[in-house]
């Protein structure tokens, strides 16, 4: 299942779409805060039109993208130009070498894959340090309004979401553990309110602008740090030179 690039881009131009993009980027940044960036290679599998790949580039990674839709890939290349290498291909069988990248990101893509476990295994194969997974939360209010497989399914974002496979946090945790052999790490979510409340005015901005526990919001992100390469712990900043006993 693939998105229509035009409708995908148009969604982020709406009021709720602009707000959701801002908050999802905040969630993305919060989950990768422990990952070093300078000189680190990152692959986004299922990069779509490059919206989040561009955000990852702005965060300091050397980015590459993989997308199986030629229409989406063309839009991503137009957006990023020479800032990213963007490849045509499926996420469950890539041409990249083992550990070709430091990190891999799967941001709202597993819901639309025939075999999510195979895509996760491939992400773990090509990434040496860790994987970040963003997914639609089946325990959210958003699922009740936009995800339940009932009613008409037109060629719109709502129709595509009704045909998607939404995950619960325990389901994704089990899938990640089975596919990667690693225990998932920090998991957080955003946008707990119905879509009508995704707006920058108070009190809705306060309600939907907070990062919540895993099972609360419409969008959830889970970080997997491979045991062989644990993330860096930020060093303390010293106001004075440490003494000889430090």
Q: What are the salient characteristics of this protein?
A:
disordered C terminus; Rossmann fold; globular; 246 residues; 8-stranded mixed sheet; alpha/beta
Provide the fold topology.
Elements: H1 5-11, H2 15-31, E1 41-45, H3 51-58, E2 62-67, H4 70-80, E3 84-88, E4 101-107, H5 116-126, E5 127-136, H6 141-146, H7 157-162, H8 169-180, E6 187-190, H9 204-209, E7 212-213, E8 219-225
Parallel strand pairs: 1-2, 1-4, 2-3, 4-5
Antiparallel strand pairs: 5-8, 6-7, 6-8
Please describe what this structure looks like.
Helix content is 34%, strand content 19%. By secondary structure, the protein is of the alpha/beta class. The chain has one domain: Rossmann fold. It has an 8-stranded mixed sheet, with helices on both faces. Helix 5 links the parallel strand 4 and strand 5. The C terminus is likely disordered.
**Averaged pLDDT:** 89
**Succession of helices and strands:** HHEHEHEEHEHHHEHEE
- Ranges where pLDDT stays below 50 over 5 or more residues in a row are 152-156, 234-246
Count of alpha/pi helices: 9
User: CATH H-level name... which superfamily?
Assistant: Vaccinia Virus protein VP39
Q: Percent range for helical residues?
A: 25-40%
**Gyration radius from CA atoms, angstroms:** 18 Å
Structural class per helix/strand content?
alpha/beta
**Overall number of structural domains:** 1
CATH architecture: 3-Layer(aba) Sandwich
Strand content: 15-25%
Strand order in the sheet with the most strands: 3-2-1-4-5-8-6-7
Shape label? globular
CATH-assigned fold name: Rossmann fold
> How many beta strands in the DSSP annotation?
8
Q: Please, what is the oligomeric state? A: single chain
Could you describe the largest sheet, including whether it forms a barrel?
8 strands, mixed
């Amino acid at each position: 299942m693939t998105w229509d690039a035009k409708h995908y881009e148009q969604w982020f131009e709406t009021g709720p779409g602009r707000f959701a993009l801002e908050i999802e980027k905040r969630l993305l940044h919060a989950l990768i805060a422990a990952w070093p960036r300078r000189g680190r290679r990152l692959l986004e599998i299922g990069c779509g039109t490059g919206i989040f790949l561009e955000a990852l580039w702005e965060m300091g990674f050397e980015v590459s993208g993989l997308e199986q839709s030629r229409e989406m890939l063309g839009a991503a290349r137009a957006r990023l130009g020479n800032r990213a290498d963007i490849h045509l291909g499926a996420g469950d069988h890539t041409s990249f070498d083992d550990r070709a990248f430091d990190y891999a990101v799967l941001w709202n893509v597993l819901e639309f894959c025939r075999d999510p476990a195979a895509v996760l295994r491939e992400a773990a194969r090509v990434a040496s340090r860790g994987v970040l997974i963003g997914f639609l939360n089946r325990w959210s209010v958003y699922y009740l309004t936009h995800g339940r497989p009932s009613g008409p399914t037109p060629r719109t974002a709502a129709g595509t979401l009704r045909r998607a496979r939404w995950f619960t946090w325990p389901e994704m945790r089990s899938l990640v553990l089975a596919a990667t052999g690693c225990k998932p790490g920090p998991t957080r979510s955003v946008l707990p309110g119905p879509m009508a409340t995704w707006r920058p005015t108070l009190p809705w901005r306060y309600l939907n602008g907070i990062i919540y526990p895993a099972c609360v919001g419409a969008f959830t992100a889970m970080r997997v740090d491979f045991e062989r390469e644990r993330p860096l712990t930020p060093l303390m900043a010293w106001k004075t030179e440490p003494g000889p006993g430090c």
